[in-house]
Specification:
Elements (H helix, E strand, L loop, with lengths): L1 E5 L5 E5 L9 E10 L3 H9 L9 E9 L11 E5 L12 E5 L3 E3 L6 H4 L3 H14 L15 E4 L4 H12 L5 E5 L3 H5 L9 E4 L4 H12 L6 E4 L6 H8 L5 E4 L11 E3 L15 H4 L5 H18 L7 E4 L6 H9 L7 E5 L10
Parallel strand pairs: 8-9, 8-11, 9-10, 11-12, 12-13, 14-15
Antiparallel strand pairs: 1-2, 3-4, 3-6, 3-15, 4-5, 5-7
Pfam family, one: ADH_N
Protein name: Chaperonin 10-like protein
GO molecular function: oxidoreductase activity, acting on NAD(P)H
Length: 350
C-alpha cells in the first residue's frame, strides 16, 4: 500500500509498505479520505525524531477487525481518530484505530465531510464537558450559562459551538475575524448568542462581551486559538472563579486559571506529551470516547450535528506536502484540507 511520511522539514515521501494487521481492540480501515490538522505539521517538525505518518483523521470502510472488536464489520462506513504519534496513521491507503475511537457514519454524510470530524470534534467535547465541566447534551443546561469561544471559525471552535448548542448552553459569545459570517450561521441569536470581530481591537471586544454578560460572571471560556494575543483578552473578561481551556501550551497569566485540553487523553496515559492536569482525568477515557463518538454519529444521522467545511487537495497523498505547508502558513480559514487517498499515484496496486 501507499503511505506518506513527513520529515521535520515537511518534506513528504510516499512509500510502498505492507498493509498492517489489526491487533486486538483495533480496526483496520481502508482510507477513502484523510483529514488534516495543524498538529500534522507540528508533530513532524517539533516532536518526531524521524519521518512519520502524522495523520489521525480517518474516513473509509472497515477492512478487518482485531480480536475482541464488536460492533464493526468489513464494509462498514466509518470515521475514526487514530492514536496520535503511533504507527499506521491516516496518511495511507490503510490505517488503524481503536474500536472505541471509531464510529459509523450515515449514508447522507460523505467521506470528505466525515474526515473533518474525529480529532477536532473530540477536542471540543473534552474541553467543554471534561475540562470546563459544562452540562452535556444528554443533560442540557436549564439556566443561562455564558460561554466564551475564542476562534469560532476554527474547526475546534466551530464544533464547540455546535456541541454547546446541543447542550442548551447560551449565550455563546464567539470571537472571530474574517470568517465572522461563517460563525454567525452557527450561533443562535434568538438565545442571546453573538459573534464579535476581534479586529475591532481588545477594548471594543471587551466592551461587547461585557454588554452581553449584563453583569453576570463569565465562568467558562474555550480559547481554540491559544496564541499570545488571545489569552490576555480572555483574562480581561473571565471571572476570578472562572476557568479557560486552551488547545496549546500558553504562558501563565497571574490570576487566570488555565487548563489545557489534550485530545490524546482519550487514548490513555501512554501519550508521551500528556500533562499533569490531563493525567488526572484519564480514568474512563475510553468510555468518554465511545459515548461522544457515538453521539457524533447520532447527531449526523438526525441533523443536529454537522461536519466542518472542507477543501479537497488535489493528488491525494502526493498533495500532502503542499497541504501541510499551507496549514503552517495559516491559509486554511473556516475549512479543513482533506485528501482523497485513491487519487495518489499508484494507489490500489498490490
Amino acid at each position: 500500500m501507499k503511505e506518506a511520511f513527513v520529515d521535520k522539514f515537511l518534506n513528504v515521501e510516499v512509500r510502498d509498505v505492507p498493509i498492517p494487521t489489526p491487533p486486538p481492540g483495533q480496526v483496520l480501515i481502508k482510507v477513502v479520505v484523510t483529514g488534516t490538522n495543524p498538529k500534522d505539521w507540528k508533530v513532524p517538525e517539533m516532536i518526531a525524531k524521524e519521518p512519520t505518518n502524522s495523520g489521525d483523521d480517518i474516513a473509509g470502510y472497515v477492512e478487518s477487525v482485531g480480536d475482541g472488536v464488536k460492533g464493526f464489520a468489513k464494509g462498514d462506513r466509518v470515521a475514526a481518530f487514530h492514536e496520535m504519534t503511533k504507527p499506521h496513521g491516516s496518511f495511507a491507503e490503510y490505517a488503524l484505530a481503536w474500536d472505541y475511537c471509531t464510529f459509523h457514519i450515515p449514508d447522507s454524510v460523505s467521506f470528505e465531510e466525515a474526515a473533518t470530524i474525529p480529532l477536532a470534534a473530540m477536542t471540543s467535547a473534552i474541553g467543554l464537558f471534561q475540562i470546563l465541566n459544562l452540562p452535556p447534551p444528554f443533560r442540557p443546561a436549564t439556566e443561562p450559562t455564558p460561554l466564551l469561544i475564542y476562534g469560532g471559525s476554527s474547526a475546534v471552535g466551530a464544533f464547540a459551538i455546535k456541541l454547546a448548542k446541543a447542550a442548551n448552553i447560551h449565550p455563546i459569545i464567539a470571537v472571530a475575524g474574517k470568517a465572522k459570517g461563517f460563525v454567525e450561521d452557527l450561533v443562535d441569536k434568538s438565545k442571546g448568542d453573538v459573534v464579535i470581530d476581534y479586529r475591532q481591537g481588545d477594548e471594543a471586544v471587551v466592551a461587547q462581551i461585557n454588554e452581553v454578560l449584563k453583569g453576570r460572571p463569565l465562568l467558562h471560556a474555550y480559547d481554540a486559538i491559544s496564541e499570545s494575543k488571545t489569552l490576555p483578552l480572555v483574562a480581561k473578561v473571565l471571572d476570578k472563579k472562572g476557568l479557560v481551556t486552551t488547545v496549546l501550551p500558553t504562558e501563565p497569566i497571574e490570576g487566570l486559571k488555565v487548563e489545557r485540553t489534550m485530545v490524546g487523553w482519550v487514548h490513555g496515559p501512554q501519550i508521551p506529551f500528556a500533562v499533569k492536569t490531563v493525567q488526572g482525568r484519564q480514568p474512563g477515557c475510553a468510555e468518554f470516547a465511545v459515548a461522544y463518538f457515538k453521539l457524533f454519529s447520532w447527531g449526523l444521522a438526525y441533523g443536529w450535528f454537522s461536519p466542518h467545511p472542507h477543501q479537497v487537495v488535489e493528488g491525494g497523498l502526493d498533495g500532502l506536502e503542499k497541504a501541510l505547508r499551507d496549514l503552517k502558513d495559516g491559509k486554511a480559514s473556516a475549512f479543513k484540507y482533506v485528501l482523497r487517498v485513491g487519487d495518489t499515484k499508484g494507489a490500489g496496486q498490490k
